[in-house]
Amino acid sequence: MYSESRGDRLSDFSDEQKNYLQGFAAGSGIGLSLAQLPTWAATLDIVQTKKPHDAGEDRDPNLAAQSRHLAEGKKLPAEETAKRDIGHGLDVWNRMLEHAKDARFPKGTDVFLFKFQGMFYVAPAQDSFMCRLRIAGGVMSSHQLRGVAQIADEFAGGYADITTRANLQLREIKPQHTIDVLMGLHDLGIINRGSGADNIRNVTSSPTAGIDPQELIDTLPLARKLHHHILNHRDMYGLPRKFNIAFDGAGRVSALEDTNDIGFTAMKIRDPADFISGEQIVFRLTLGGITGHKDFARDTGYAILPKDTIAVSHAIVRAFAEHGDRTDRRKARLKYVLDRTGFDGFIREAEKHLPTGVKLHSLAVDRCEVRPAFDKLGHVGFHPQKQPGLNYVGVVVPVGRLTTEQMRGIAKIADQFGSGTIRLTVWQNLLISDIADAEADRVREEIEALGLHHRATSFRAGLVACTGAAGCKFANAHTKIHAMEVAEHLERSIGELDVPINIHLTGCHHSCAQHYIGDIGLIATKVQVTNTAGEDDMVEGYHVFIGGGYGDDKAIGRELLRNVVAVDVPRYVERLVRAYLTHRHSGEGVRGFVLRHTTKAILEFIDTDTFSTSTPLSAS
Ligand code: SF4
User: Fold this and answer.
1) Where are the alpha helices (DSSP H) in 119-163?
2) What three-state secondary structure class fits 452?
3) How far apart are CA 425 and CA 37, in angstroms?
């Protein structure tokens, strides 16, 4: 209606006037950017005949990169074409309004585009939407948590899942309620644009940022700045594939920054002669983490001042947008650009996008002090903060799921005994901070009254599971259910372990639960069995890895067994743990034990003959 009436008014221009305006626009170089302005767009035929992608190219490196690929005769996959046709993925909003009005689910590439606004249509796993939030550094207020609980009750399934990016997801959203959910979140100050599709995902930081006695720097303000930077720069959307960024402040709890495309790791420079601009604390730049493809982020040899991390992130994302593969989505992550260009080649490209005065400083890693060690159980239980007399408590949330009643209860505890903040962690649990020494017992009682715990066995504290078949169409198994079965079985059969252990279950090759970095990692598969009627059947199962790690112990797990049916998994894992307990050296963790033994030796320890379906890997 609006554009029609505007068109009527502007049709008063004569052809001569239109020609003049076209020439003016083209000559001044503003023709393309005029397309962004609706009042001018209708005036000029030159603009009217252009598609959204033509109009935005001068401002959006993603569109320009697509054009380059096309000019070279390459074919874009459906996702790139969908982004190109709409001009900018966030502009799917109007389409979403239409679908919500008609209570319709999206079809075709609209399923992909809806993810720009954080809405995932997850059929056939569930005939509904999942909404992924966006919570900078995983830190939210009690008011926000209560608000999310309200939205979950009104428009979703009455629960929320904590993700491995210190974020929340709501599930079971009907098509008529997508906009209700998004408006509700935005009202709470939770702007989740770009939480899915080919965008920069939730920016994470050390979960104990600002309260950690051993941290070198508080990373939360940086994560927040970057979060808002992304939200306000449209060229940070529509990348070749998803992109992860994390800040590690060298605190006690890992941010797993070396599993991100960009990992900023705080370190202290050893020698005053190396200080940069007088600064002693720098971030080392690591790039290319993607553990699902068996690669950690690696140190680039460059250090960055904390104040420059936002500009450097922007420059790296710009270079990725320009040089990422737009034709093969399996090869479209940053790792593959780095494989092609090498670190230095890529850094030279990124430097072209740095503002004046921002620099990457070449600084060998051994010029920095070694990062203080992690406490692998630092995300569970009570721990003193750097503020005297105050503590944080890590609440155990089995496989990350919280009911809305528990969410309200957590918010109440945070208000009554803490500072009203809740910190989500990449370990799928949450911390409540700023609890006075004298209040610790009350808080313990309140947490237990919610059916949650402040203490956990090592098995449960280190348990990570992706969404799995209950809500993800890619999943080969019900990972969350199987994770709980594993933990319960280990607690029944072994009791407690005297060292931390990470057991990660992931539902498919996307590896959201990062099975490769677990001490014991499981990736779901379908296993062929013979059923009781004597027929071939496919059932849920797993391939088993052992000896993965992160931080100083970083390692990709070694594949040990293939095709273990899910029902056998708890007993296999028990035997692995018992083999470790029996054959470990004093003080040795699972990784050390695995390094000292061949695959064949470990298989002999666990005696796979007594199970019917697995395929042991016999390589040494
Ligand atoms: Fe879904 Fe696969 Fe991610 Fe699990 S790992 S949540 S199955 S995409």
Assistant:
1) 142-155
2) coil
3) 42
